[in-house]
Amino acid sequence: MCGIAGYIGTRNAVDVVFDQLKRLEYRGYDSAGVAFVQADRIGILKRAGKLTQLGGLIEQEKPEANLAIAHSRWATHGGPTDFNAHPHYDQQAKIALIHNGIIENYLELKEELVRAGHTFQSETDTEVAAHIIGREYVEGVSLEDAVRKAVQKMRGAFGFVVISHLDPEKLVCARNASPLVVGLGEGENMVASDIPALLPYTRRVAILENDMVATVTRGEIKVIGLDGRKLELSPFEVDWDIAAAEKGGYDHFMLKEIHEQPAVVRSALAGRIEGHGVALQGLFSDHVWQEIDRVVIIACGTAFHAGLMGKTLFERVLQLPTDVYFSSEFRYGEPVVSPRSLAVFISQSGETADSLAALRLCKSRRIRTLGIVNVVGSSIARECDRTIMTQAGPEISVASTKAYTAQCIVLLLLALHIAQVKETPGVRVGNMVQDLRNFTGYVQASLSLESEMREVAEMFQDAKLVFFLGRNADAHVSLEAALKLKEVAYVPTQECPAGEMKHGPLALIEPGVLAVFGATDSDVREKTVSNMKEVQARGGYVLALTTEDDSSLDSVADRVVKVPKSGSPYLNALVSIVPLQLLAYYVAKARGCEIDQPRNLAKSVTVE
Ligand code: F6R
Q: Which residues have a Cβ under 8 Å from the Cβ of 530 and sit 6 or more positions away?
């Protein structure tokens, strides 16, 4: 999510890494900084805000160096402030570190360091990593060995770059899960979190694999494994143009963000499941959860659809009465909320005007509020009594995809947290945690349906109407799938629970209409089959999504798409959004639509 750049060579390294950061601006960020080696010190300049703030500081100080690193931060642990911006020093300012990812066990490591007398300037997990590496970096130990030993103490996702004025001819990088790519130049070498940053300087690059530690000097790049064994890089030439590279090789941000979903699930879970249980930090104390007797979920658009998934969970798993409101209806309605209600606000941007107004209304009535938000430091994240970050990374496409998946995962974590606290009878938290652990793999596997969804999309690009139908969680996912298709491909849709179709919408079925049925829930599948037959009897075409173990629809639907099956009906329905997002994307592409910026729509709706 964050941008990383590092350079060693003959040019002014500060100028190079600042330019590289600019090329990563499309990722989104809220603070930035640079560290450079000069004689017997490491200088650091950093600022909250846009790169122009950092640029002003560089302009004023005019630092010159041949070795520098730079970082643009998208806040996760700690708000977007000057102190929390990277780079971070270790305790003795012997090293400076930049980091992309989340150190899951940072609290544990921090407590140990505090007991040993370390003090911290920021709230970040990154500064803890800097102190751990600095502690290993004692006389006689090389910087790469210090990094190698330190990373073995850390759990989570990371891509690090470290420099030291005590060893001014190298930068050392390590990665686990967060991407790092090295660029090979002539008398200069570099590292970045993403290829576009490197392209103006070199087209010869190599991807660092997990558990690799790379030492980058002017003349060469050496790589070892965590056990110290020498490893080989496999450099290749990049032939993309720079604009394409910003999208990581994808044609659109929407497609890139759909493909990011396995990593998004991993990130939403990072540090939040432990053993057989859920470990959500910083929520209400246990007695508050005992007191809460009703939940109201308040959100707009896609976030509202995630809220419906939350209702399913809270009512089915916790038997906790839950209502879901559109923010605009809540704020001007007369909602009945008591002091024992919990108001949950779901928002990607954290700035949606109606949601923010509804939040302020709840606060004025002294209702407890909980945010589920993607953008750290946003108004909703700050103003809610408690907030759980979805940690999905910046979402650039106007149509929300990965944020929805992250919101649904966080809602499941929240439901399991409440079940743990209340010891809700009959809830098998351990089993559901295991399903969550496996879910990243299911989302990854569902991406392999891409070519099939493209084929279906091309068949139905001219459909005059597309129905989206399902029952239970499948019905909620259908609403989201319909929204995706109408907003990016401008195709009229009709969405409703499958059982409701006969009460009116069935009148719209005629030859040429496509009906997409979510049928991943085996408990109600037979009922849904009757609805499929009703559509076919009137000339409609039935596309059914079911789980991979089910063959009952093979002879019923006109076309069947099979998604990976997990143990939980909620997750089975959720994974089916991935092929449906791809369907919307490819219909829009076939129709030549402006996919990332659909007409009439804005990413963040900050007006009523
Ligand atoms: C649809 C979409 C919108 C947003 C809605 C709420 O793809 O992106 O419907 O979900 O505007 O925005 P946030 O989540 O930022 O409050």
A: none
Query: For residue range 287-327, what is the model confidence (pLDDT) as tens digits?
Result: 999 999 999 999 999 999 999 999 999 999 999 999 999 99
Q: Using the mean position of ligand 1's atoms as its centre, give its distance from the Cα of residue 556 in Å.
A: 35
C-beta 347 within 6 A of ligand 1? yes
- Cis peptide preceding 564, ω within 30 of 0: no
pLDDT tens digits, 423-457: 999 999 999 999 999 999 999 999 999 999 999 99
Q: Are residues 511 and 384 in the same domain?
A: no
Q: Is residue 488 part of a domain?
A: yes
In a domain, 604, yes or no: no
In order of 19, 247, 384, 543, the CA distances from 100 in angstroms are: 18, 18, 27, 41
3-state DSSP helix/strand/coil % of the chain, to nearest 5:
40, 25, 40
Q: Is the CB of 355 under 6 A from ligand 1?
A: yes
**Tokens representing 226?**
């965590």
Do residues 491 and 562 both lie within one domain? yes
Q: Is 399 in the pocket of ligand 1 (CB under 6 A)?
A: yes
Q: What domain range includes position 138?
A: 3-244
Q: Which among 571, 306, 315 is positioned nearest to 432, based on CA atoms?
A: 571
Q: Which amino acid is at 64?
A: E
Mean pLDDT value across residues 355-365: 95
Could you list the active site residues? 2, 603
